[in-house]
């Protein structure tokens, strides 16, 4: 059996996950010192990011050529819409932000670039492109959630404990494993040239993950000119 795609790419993205974990936004969630306004920026930007991200799973479902693959994409879609986005809705309720305001958030420049890149790669290629484009998202957050959960007291933190709890949960870990299994199955037996294309998509979406944390930390939207 050939090497799993996720094992092959791990050395190339490990450093990106570590950089995301060390980012002051993420460290601030870990020790509870993150400014709530920065977190609210993440909350609103991420809600509209997830709406676009959910479309990837719908594209994957329609491009799938077997029922097992359709089921895996459909499971991922359900996870985004009803597991992850429930966390955002619950935080919004605590902050007094109406759901309509969340949904009407204007996507920042980085958010627009990231979701446009993912959707373009998903639409332009085969079903394996879709699986590559959605992988970094769940892998990076599950990595961060599990690392933050190791910090004593982080899971009980007043503001960020439920964030860390959700992204380190068995349910979210299972959704990430579903995404990993999908790309491993769809990349299996592909020639080196095609694997390199899939790797580039994962590395670039991984870098977008880092840029997204930075955008939220700086509360960036678009340049005012
Ligand atoms: C930007 C971003 N990346 C990843 C995830 C985790 N699905 C997220 N909610 N937002």
Automatic annotation (TrEMBL):
Q: In which pathway does it act?
A: Cofactor biosynthesis; thiamine diphosphate biosynthesis
Ranges of residues in domain Thiaminase-2/PQQC: 11-218
As recorded in UniProt, its EC number(s) are: 3.5.99.2
Keywords assigned by UniProt? Answer: Hydrolase, Thiamine biosynthesis
Q: Provide the top EC class.
A: hydrolase
Record's catalysed reaction(s) = 4-amino-5-aminomethyl-2-methylpyrimidine + H2O = 4-amino-5-hydroxymethyl-2-methylpyrimidine + NH4(+); thiamine + H2O = 5-(2-hydroxyethyl)-4-methylthiazole + 4-amino-5-hydroxymethyl-2-methylpyrimidine + H(+)
Top-rank taxon of the source lineage equals Bacteria
Q: What does this protein do?
A: Catalyzes an amino-pyrimidine hydrolysis reaction at the C5' of the pyrimidine moiety of thiamine compounds, a reaction that is part of a thiamine salvage pathway.
Subunit info here reads: Homotetramer.
Q: Which family does it belong to?
A: Belongs to the TenA family.
Name this protein carries in UniProt: Aminopyrimidine aminohydrolase
Q: Which gene encodes it?
A: tenA
């Amino acid at each position: 059996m050939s090497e799993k795609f996720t094992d092959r790419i791990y050395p190339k993205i490990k450093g990106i996950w570590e950089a995301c974990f060390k980012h002051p936004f993420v460290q601030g969630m870990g020790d509870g010192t993150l400014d709530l306004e920065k977190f609210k920026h993440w909350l609103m930007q991420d809600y509209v990011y997830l709406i676009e991200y959910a479309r990837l799973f719908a594209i994957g479902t329609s491009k799938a050529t077997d029922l097992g693959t359709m089921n895996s994409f459909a499971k991922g879609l359900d996870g985004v819409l009803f597991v992850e986005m429930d966390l955002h809705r619950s935080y919004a309720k605590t902050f007094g932000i109406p759901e309509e305001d969340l949904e009407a958030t204007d996507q920042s420049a980085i958010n627009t670039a990231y979701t446009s890149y993912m959707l373009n790669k998903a639409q332009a290629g085969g079903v394996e492109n879709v699986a590559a484009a959605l992988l970094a998202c769940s892998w990076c957050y599950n990595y961060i959630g599990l690392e933050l959960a190791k910090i004593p007291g982080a899971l009980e933190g007043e503001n960020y404990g439920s964030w860390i709890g959700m992204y380190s949960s068995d349910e979210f870990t299972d959704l990430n494993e579903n995404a990993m299994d999908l790309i491993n199955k769809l990349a299996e037996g592909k020639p080196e040239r095609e694997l390199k294309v899939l790797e580039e998509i994962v590395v670039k979406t991984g870098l977008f993950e880092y840029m997204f944390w930075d955008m939220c930390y700086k509360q960036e939207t678009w340049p005012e000119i």
